[in-house]
Amino acid sequence: MSLVRILMFLIFVRASLQASAKDVEQWSVFEVSFNVESRINPFTEVQLSSIFVHDSLKIKVNGFYDGDNIFRIRFMPPQAGEWSYVTKSNVASLDDRKGKFKCVEPSSINHGYVCVRDTFHFAYKDGTPYLPLGTTAYAWHLQEDSLCKQTLQSLKESPFNKIRMCVFPKKYRWIMNDPAIFPFEKKSNGEWDFERFNPTYFQELDKNIDALAEMGIEVDLILFHPYDYSWGFDEMDSITDIRYLDYIIARLASFRNVWWSMGNEYDLIKSKNDDRWDSYFKFIKANDPYGHLLSVHNGPRWYNHSKPWITHLSLQTKELESLVEVRDKYQKPVLVDECGYEGNLPWEWGNLTAKELVHRFWVGISRGCYVAAHGETFLDDNDVLWWSKGGVLKGESVERIRFIKKISESFPLAKLNPVSKGYWRKRGGCCAGDDFYLYYTGNTQSKYIEVELSDNCLYDVEIIDAWDMVVRKYDEKISGKCRINLPEKPYQVIICRNIKK
Amino acid sequence: MSLVRILMFLIFVRASLQASAKDVEQWSVFEVSFNVESRINPFTEVQLSSIFVHDSLKIKVNGFYDGDNIFRIRFMPPQAGEWSYVTKSNVASLDDRKGKFKCVEPSSINHGYVCVRDTFHFAYKDGTPYLPLGTTAYAWHLQEDSLCKQTLQSLKESPFNKIRMCVFPKKYRWIMNDPAIFPFEKKSNGEWDFERFNPTYFQELDKNIDALAEMGIEVDLILFHPYDYSWGFDEMDSITDIRYLDYIIARLASFRNVWWSMGNEYDLIKSKNDDRWDSYFKFIKANDPYGHLLSVHNGPRWYNHSKPWITHLSLQTKELESLVEVRDKYQKPVLVDECGYEGNLPWEWGNLTAKELVHRFWVGISRGCYVAAHGETFLDDNDVLWWSKGGVLKGESVERIRFIKKISESFPLAKLNPVSKGYWRKRGGCCAGDDFYLYYTGNTQSKYIEVELSDNCLYDVEIIDAWDMVVRKYDEKISGKCRINLPEKPYQVIICRNIKK
Asked: What are phi and psi of B10, to 5 degrees?
């Protein structure tokens, strides 16, 4: 036995011991690593995968090279019980490695990963409804340490349960700084070596996604974007793109809080056409063992969300009044994750008042859709704008989004559909069967509204001021066709709950 | 000579004397009347017209029967000087009547009738620019006297220079009362006698249009509308419709403050198809001797405003952000005269806040278009809603519209076109050449805006708060590409005036 073989054997034993020593929660990451010095390019020439088996369940995952002679395999067990695995590799010392581990029931804060439920809604894998309350900070994780920590602290204290962020660095007005590290190594001629990922870059990403998972924040991970400056990550060739996707899936698919966002403003990435995008979607769908949420965020041109690999719509749009039509057309969850940010930029995408942004959240909810599109773009002496770099939250919408989170706990989330007909259908009326109705008056000042509730139910009414964050109980119980008096000011949410069961 | 003939002769002499006794201002009404007892139906069987001649100008106008054996001919002289006329009729006593009168220069408050100017704008016939600041009170003139008087007083004190009102009575929620008089006589069987107009009805209309003219208010006179209840004025046959249009033109075309609005929500009038509408437009265009403004107000379906008889767009729309595209497409003045009313109705067309309505006026102005769409729909114990019955003005938008009127006096109205390119083109930037720029920030809170002024000019800047009605002078003079700091709140209008000439 050569020294290397002995070493590998010991590592193998250690890995197995590690795994068996610490039980893994369902929907958490089981990881096994192998210390193998590879003479061939460990990113491009080493093939490594593993089959994980539990009863009749067999799941194949790919491994990845993480630098320093470490190969890793990560797996998210979808079910509790005994799991075993065996590796397969073109490198003998990585091949036919076996092990097992025990997967235990998830803890109370672990609900699994988010999936589509009931056609139009989201729920965690354990069935818990998920109401996306999202923010955007594209490249927060690529800023200096102290800023990253501040961002994480801000997120921890925030109501957000979703964030849009990029894998690749971003350069654009107000974020003109280079990151300290890049996702690829450089060749001696100074060009990127697209055949060598920079593991440190991705280790940082792992760490940050994990930190977000601990806060219950889903990561809508943007795989490509056009704001690349001159790095060229937006115009890599297909082979490089696919290798990158493969690497990302191998590293991150086991993180339960990951969603795949193929691109931010994908249509502004001029180097790729729809055929290429489609092939990337197919690749992810075929290689993600878990079926994480998968979508793409548009610029001016929408992707065809009818395509089968798209799990939900991830829209940039200001046309929120017509979301019911969008929902009807695509028969998928409609998530607007960009509709302008709260801020004071000179441009319309970043100069919304807090009132307008919060209003847009409610426009979504009241149409059985989701507007989870927080972001802040307040000019800053140090160019720390939340939307790109994170930092501290300065706006007035955050508290109103927290209020949404709080009051919606008593709503039958993931069951809200636009009312079936009449005035409110496209104007902000949704319901869960006959037991729960929600109406949103938007930027209007009606003295009363006329609604059509079930004649067979009796309803308690609450009038919620979405801006002032005040909930008023209505004195009367109501039923059938009726009139509900309002305080004649904008942003009123009317909740009718059946109390006769 | 029979007694009748003697009487007619005397009347003729009197009419001629009347006319010559009192000079008529240019663009005012010259009227001559004939007292003739007709044995045939004076509305349908008597043909009466007159040719008015001044130098090489020859204008033919039709006369009309006004009850009590009175036939009238009304004429609006488009030019000062001596005019003569001669009548033509199938009734001998009305035929070949001759006369003349002197037309004098208009007084300082008489600017003529409003026409299209410079493709996209309006001006009075004497060239004075006209900025429409309009309101709507569909059937104010058909309410009881005291209410009519109150409405006229409200209008007198208001900033409005345009009103949308119907010829026919209207019945709809909150206006369920019958008018005291109707436009047609009834037959003995209780049905309308569509061959006999009720002159009293139209005399009242004359009087009210005249009263509005004295206040400088243009009347966008709605000829047909769908809110007819069961009277049937919306579903008369073509012959009756044309006879009605003929009568209206004969009575009212000589009133300089009249605009023809073919229909209010014409597309909801189910009895007429586009061919019929087209034929009515052609009829008006052929028979109105002056070429008053002619358009039609849509419901859900727009009329094809490209048709040659349409002088300007008269739109109902909420899609104000895209007015520049509309303007580009039709190459005519774009006037939005309905985009929701200030009020507290349960429905979206009547529950706007004043802020939102005033905002919409500025959206129009800043796009080189016109949103002249005031209306109030505040619920009232006596169902007196301004939008239909008039009364008193209760809202907060009126004062802001007065403010628009005041500050726009120094604007180069009727020259404002969207800036030719760049960010502001479709977002609220317009200009008059290089000498005047106007930007409107809308419902946003930018800390500054970036604008592109001429390098060859030097600009004074004013920041106008369209809601608070405050004008602040900017300290610096600016030039070329530059940044203008703002107070970070909605509804700011930025005016840049070239001072280097």
From this structure: -65, -45
Q: H/E/C letters for each residue in B206-261?
A: HHHHHHHHHCCCEEEEEEECCCCCCCCCCCCCHHHHHHHHHHHHHHHCCCCCEEEE
Residues from chain B that touch A343, judged by Cβ atoms under 8 A, are: 445
Beta strands in A90-167 (DSSP E): 98-104, 114-117, 121-124, 134-136, 162-166
Structure tokens at A183: 């996702």
Task: Name the one residue in this structure whose structure tokens are 């006096």.
Answer: B409
Write out the two tokens for A176: 């003109």
CA atoms of A431 and B116, how far apart (whole Å): 50
Of the candidates A293, A303, A308, A290, the residue with the CA atom closest to the CA atom of residue A263? A303
Which of B352, B353, B445 is facing A344, going by the closest CB pair? Answer: B445
Contact A444 B488 (CB under 8 A): no
**Residues in a beta bridge with B314:** B297, B335
Q: Which residue of B has its CA nearest to A380?
A: B447
Spatial contact of B98 and B86, defined as CB atoms under 8 Å apart: yes
Give yes or no for A446 touching B (CB within 8 A): yes
Cα distance from A378 to chain B (closest Cα, Å)? Answer: 9
> Other CB atoms closer than 10 Å to residue B127's CB: what's the count?
11
Do the Cβ atoms of A65 and A43 come closer than 8 Å? yes
Inter-chain residue contact B346 with A447, CB threshold 8 Å: yes
CA–CA separation, A212 vs A230, rounded Å? 30
d(Cα B439, Cα B428) in Å, to the nearest integer? 6
Beta strand B258-263 with B218-224: parallel, antiparallel or unpaired? Answer: parallel
- Six-digit token string for B473: 């002078």
Alpha carbons B307 and B451: distance in angstroms, whole number: 37
B 399-428 → A contacts, CB under 8 A: 423, 427
Contact criterion met (CB below 8 Å) for A201 and A417: no
DSSP assigned state of A129: B
A445/B353 CB distance under 8 A: yes
CA–CA gap between residue A138 and residue A376 (Å, rounded): 11
pTM given for the model = 0.92
Digit-by-digit pLDDT tens for chain B (501 residues) are: 454 454 444 444 444 434 444 799 999 999 999 999 989 999 999 999 999 999 999 999 999 999 999 999 999 999 999 999 999 999 999 999 999 999 999 999 999 999 999 999 999 999 999 999 999 999 999 999 999 999 999 999 999 999 999 999 999 999 999 999 999 999 999 999 999 999 999 999 999 999 999 999 999 999 999 999 899 999 999 999 999 999 999 999 999 999 999 999 999 999 999 999 999 999 999 999 999 999 999 999 999 999 999 999 999 999 999 999 999 999 999 999 999 999 999 999 999 999 999 999 999 999 999 999 999 999 999 999 999 999 999 999 999 999 999 999 999 988 999 999 999 998 999 999 999 999 999 999 999 999 999 999 999 999 999 999 999 999 899 999 999 999 999 999 999 999 987
Q: For residue A309, what is the enclosing H or E element?
A: none
As a whole number of angstroms, the distance between CA B196 and CA B46 comes to 12
Nearest to B344 among A344, A423, A447 (CB): A447
Q: Which residues fall within 8 angstroms of residue B458, CB to CB, at 6 or more apart?
A: B477, B478, B479, B498, B499, B500
Residue range A236-294, pLDDT digits in tens: 999 999 999 999 999 999 999 999 999 999 999 999 999 999 999 999 999 999 999 99
In chain A, residues with a C-beta closer than 8 Å to the C-beta of B445 are 343-344, 351-353
Nearest to A13 by CA among A1, A23, A3, A21: A21
CB contact under 8 A, B346 and A448: yes
